[in-house]
UniProtKB/TrEMBL annotation:
Designated name of the protein: VOC domain-containing protein
Matches recorded under Gene3D superfamilies: 2,3-Dihydroxybiphenyl 1,2-Dioxygenase, domain 1 (3.10.180.10)
Annotated ranges, domain VOC: 4-126
Lineage: Bacteria, Pseudomonadati, Pseudomonadota, Gammaproteobacteria, Oceanospirillales
Spans through the membrane: none
Pfam family, any one: Glyoxalase
Top-level taxon of the source organism: Bacteria
InterPro entries, A to Z: Glyas_Bleomycin-R_OHBP_Dase, Glyas_Fos-R_dOase_dom, VOC_core
SUPFAM superfamilies: Glyoxalase/Bleomycin resistance protein/Dihydroxybiphenyl dioxygenase (SSF54593)
Annotated PANTHER family: BLR2520 PROTEIN
Length: 140
């Protein structure tokens, strides 16, 4: 297996609401299939939004409800003020700040928000992970 992630799919309760949230963050849907799945082209991978129940069926597992799923997504930014700005933007778009930005024990600055379906996103500035001109986060 090559060391790569091609696509991340978030199971959502209301596809239209989830799409509005991510579009309110300034993201543009690259493809919508029959109002059942929405794809966003990111730098080097794709994020998709899909019905949570349909995703569980597709994977052959039971949709067991909510709570911490043991995974977070991360969005690194170029400066500490940008961390605060993105958290505010997520809140205005309908997300919920679950941990305000603060100094992290690993030396950076970060906080967390939850999207309308509770998916956790860390927003972080880490000087050791530079971001190139194409928006790719690199191991420093």
């Amino acid at each position: 297996m090559e060391q790569r992630i091609s696509l991340i799919t978030l199971g959502v309760g209301d596809l239209a609401r989830a799409r509005r949230f991510y579009e309110a963050l300034g993201w543009q849907a690259g493809m919508v299939v029959d109002d059942e799945v929405v794809f966003f082209q990111l730098n080097g991978l794709i994020l998709s939004l899909y019905s949570r129940a349909a995703l569980a069926r597709d994977a052959g597992v039971v949709d067991e409800g909510s709570g911490f799923a043991g995974i977070t997504l991360a969005h690194n930014v170029r400066s500490e003020p940008e961390v605060d700005a993105v958290l505010s933007e997520a809140e205005r778009a309908g997300g919920r700040v679950v941990k305000p930005a603060s100094r992290a024990e690993w030396g950076g600055y970060s906080g967390y928000f939850a999207d309308p379906d509770g998916h956790l996103w860390e927003v972080a500035h880490n000087a050791g992970f530079p971001i190139d001109a194409q928006g790719n986060t690199l191991l420093g």
